[in-house]
């Protein structure tokens, strides 16, 4: 038997913070790829510390529903799961390339495959693009009449579409910015959008000045956050000038300084996130059959599953 544990932060203050975790776990559960699927949290119940002990499966795949490698993925979750032989060096990562480590939870006799966070997996690139498609209700956003020929892209002088990938940014964890920049570069290399830039809340270049960084008339802004909350629903909309008061809401698109800003909200609420969970587990050796194809069909994505891609190449 094999089990999947989706490990997320949760919140004591925001009752909606865990909604994406439950939604994506339910999607994976419905595919039947795992005998058991469990949600576990740091700030909510069920807690990280107890979750493995509730499983019957001998083989457990733990996937952190976090954006970057850092304190929670490298210290908190392994400690709470009591993975005694764990060390960040087992991922052999440069900050965006964590894969998986196979460890034994000897007190309960289970094999634990501890995976890297969803936010640094190559499949997250597809989720960001899918988020832009969802926000604009246009599956060909950034392309000319649906063409995938780079020569057919609209030029900036024709208006065109830009894409901003937004992260928190912090001096306390340099990997936070690395994840944002990694996916930004991968999307830029696809040539789909006229401009693609990484912006941040707490470091330069700041999302507050989004219109200063784009010449395109239309800009899709995708926050690389797992759940909607204070930052995505209050700070960012007000900082970008979409609204003077988040409680009054804002238009999508909103007119700001001669640009149309298509603000999407947290990328982690996109249906395709369930695919990233599956791909992380598959990379660690989980037998998931055709579950990825099922999830992508449900999410309306025509991108190929990325578990077999060569890292750093185009989709």
UniProtKB/TrEMBL annotation:
UniProt-annotated stretches for the region Disordered: 295-315
Gene3D superfamilies attached to this UniProt entry: 3.40.50.1400
Molecular-function annotations in GO: lyase activity; metal ion binding
Lyase recorded as keyword: yes
Keywords, comma-separated and alphabetical: Cobalamin biosynthesis, Cobalt, Lyase, Metal-binding
Domain of life: Archaea
Pfam families, A to Z: CbiX
Gene Ontology biological process terms, A to Z: cobalamin biosynthetic process
Compositional bias segments (type: Basic and acidic residues): 306-315
NCBIfam families, alphabetized: PRK02395.1-1 (NF002670)
Protein name in UniProt: Sirohydrochlorin cobaltochelatase
Species this chain originates from: Natrinema salifodinae
């Amino acid at each position: 038997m094999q089990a999947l544990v989706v490990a997320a932060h949760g919140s004591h203050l925001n009752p909606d913070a865990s909604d994406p975790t439950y939604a994506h776990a339910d999607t994976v559960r419905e595919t039947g790829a795992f005998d058991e699927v469990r949600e576990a949290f740091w700030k909510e119940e069920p807690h990280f510390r107890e979750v493995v002990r509730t499983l019957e499966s001998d083989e457990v795949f733990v996937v952190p529903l976090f954006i970057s490698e850092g304190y929670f993925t490298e210290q908190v979750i392994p400690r709470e799961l009591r993975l005694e032989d764990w060390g960040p060096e087992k991922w052999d990562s440069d900050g965006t390339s964590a894969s998986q480590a196979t460890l034994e939870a000897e007190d309960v006799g289970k094999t634990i495959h501890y995976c890297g966070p969803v936010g640094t997996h190559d499949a997250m690139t597809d989720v960001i693009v899918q988020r832009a498609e969802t926000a604009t209700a246009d599956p060909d956003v950034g392309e000319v009449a649906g063409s995938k020929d780079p020569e057919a892209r609209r030029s900036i002088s024709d208006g065109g579409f830009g894409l901003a990938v937004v992260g928190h940014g912090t001096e306390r964890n340099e990997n936070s910015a690395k994840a944002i920049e990694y996916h930004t570069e991968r999307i830029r290399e696809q040539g789909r959008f006229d401009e693609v830039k990484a912006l941040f809340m707490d470091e330069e270049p700041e999302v507050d000045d989004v219109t200063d960084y784009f010449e395109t008339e239309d800009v899709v802004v995708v926050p690389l956050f797992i759940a909607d909350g204070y930052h995505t629903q209050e700070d960012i909309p007000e900082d970008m000038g979409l609204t003077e008061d988040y409680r009054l809401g804002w238009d999508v698109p909103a007119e700001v300084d001669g640009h149309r800003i298509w603000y999407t909200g947290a990328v982690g609420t996109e249906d395709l996130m369930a695919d990233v969970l599956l791909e992380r587990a598959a990379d660690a050796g989980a037998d998931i059959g055709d579950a990825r194809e099922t999830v992508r069909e449900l999410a309306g994505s025509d991108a190929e599953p990325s578990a077999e891609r060569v890292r750093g190449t185009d989709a």
